[in-house]
C-alpha cells in the first residue's frame, strides 16, 4: 500500500500525470473517429431493411463516403496545424463532426445520408493532429504507449457503435455520436498548447510555461526546450525557395515513402474491410453466429487487444511488433481461407477472423499512424503528417469502395487468400525497411534519415550523454528524472532570457 502511494506521488511530482492527462484529452478525438468508422457496419443492415430498393452500389457509397472526405480533411488539417496550432485545431474538429452527425440523424433521403457521411469523414482526416500533439508533448519513454492510446480509443468508439446498433435505431445512434463529439474541445480547454509548436513560432515564454505544466520540473522543461531550439532557423529568415527545399530533404522523402508502403500493405491485409463491413462480412463468410453478435465480439476484442498493444509497444521494438503482427495476420487470414475451401467448421473461421482482428491491434494497425507523428522534422511535421494521412485515406477509400466488386469477382474465399498473402508481404516489408523509433527522442529519430552517426540501440536502456553547446547533459530513461546541467548564460536565446528576467522582477 505504501509503495503504491509513493509511486502515485512520483507520477504527480515529476509531471507524468499532467502529461498523461494532456495526451488523453487529445486522443479523446479518436472516440469520434471510431464512431465514424464503425457506423456504416450497423447502418447498412438497418437501412437496407427499411429501404429494400437500395442497391448494392448505393450501399457501398454509404460506407465509402465516410472515407472519401478523409484525405481532404487530412490535407486541410495538415495545412492548418502548423498555422493555428495543435490545440486549436483539435478543438475546431468538433464543428464538422457535430454538423455531420446531425445531418445523418435528421436525414430524410439517401442524398442527405450520404452528405452527412461525407461531412463526418472530415473528422477522421483532421484527427491525425492528435498523434502530432502527443508526439510533441511526451517524453521518449512514454511516447509509444500514449500514442497507442489513439487506436485503442478508436476501437472503443467502434465497440460502442456496434453495441448500440444491435438494439438502437441508427438515427438515435447518430444523435449520441453528435453529443459525444463535444467531449474533446471541453477536455482540451484545460490542456496546454504544444511547447514545441510555440517555440517554433518564437513564443518562448509561452513554450516554457506549457512545458513546465507538462513536466512539473523546471530543469527538465528548460533542457528539453533548449535541445529543440538549438540550431533551429526561424521561418521568417527563410526565403520561399528555402522553404520549398524543406520538402526535398532525404529526412522527409524517405520516411514518406516508407510510411506509404506500410499503409499500402496495411489496407490490403483486410483490416479496414472487416471494420467497415463487419456485419455483411460475417454474413458472407458464414460463421454460424449472428452477424450483429459477431460484430460486437469483434469490437470487444479490438478494445481489449488495443490495451494489450499499448502495453507491448513500450516493451518491444517497432520493427519486431510490425513484422510479427503482419506474419500472424497472414497466417490467420489464410487459415480462414483454407477452412472455407475445405468447408470446415464455421466456428473455426470465426476464430481465425477474431485472431486476425486481435493481432492487427498489436502492431500493423497502430504503428503507421503513430509513426506519422514521429518521423518528420518539426518544421514541416504538420504538413507532411497530413499528406501521409491523405494518401493513407485514399488507399482506405479505394479498398472499401472496391471490396464488393472484389468479392464478386474473387468470391469471399478468394478475397481471404488475397488478404492473407498481402499481410505476409507486409510483414517482410516491415522487417526489412521499417525504421526504429522506440525509446528515441524526436531529434534522435531525425538522425536516422541523415548521414550523421546513429545513436546506440534504444533497447539497451542505459544512460545516454549528449552535449548541448559545449555543456554536458545527462538523461535517464524516466520522465521527470533529474537533469544534470551546467548552466550557461547562452542556454536560451536573448528574448527568452529577457522575458524570464522581467517576470522574476515582477
Automatic annotation (TrEMBL):
Keyword Transmembrane helix set for record: yes
Regions crossing the membrane: 20-41, 61-81, 88-104, 110-134, 146-167, 173-191, 256-279, 291-313, 320-338, 350-370, 382-400, 415-434
Major facilitator superfamily (MFS) profile domain residues: 18-438
Entry membrane topology: Multi-pass membrane protein
This protein's record includes keyword 4Fe-4S: no
Pfam (any one): Sugar_tr
Main location as per UniProt: membrane
Subcellular location: Membrane
Highest taxon of the lineage: Eukaryota
Molecular function via GO: transmembrane transporter activity
Any single Gene Ontology cellular-component annotation: membrane
Entry keywords, A to Z: Glycoprotein, Membrane, Transmembrane, Transmembrane helix
PANTHER family: FACILITATED TREHALOSE TRANSPORTER TRET1-2 HOMOLOG-LIKE PROTEIN, PTHR48021
The name this protein goes by in its record: Major facilitator superfamily (MFS) profile domain-containing protein
Native source organism of the sequence: Pieris macdunnoughi
Lineage, top ranks: Eukaryota, Metazoa, Ecdysozoa, Arthropoda, Hexapoda
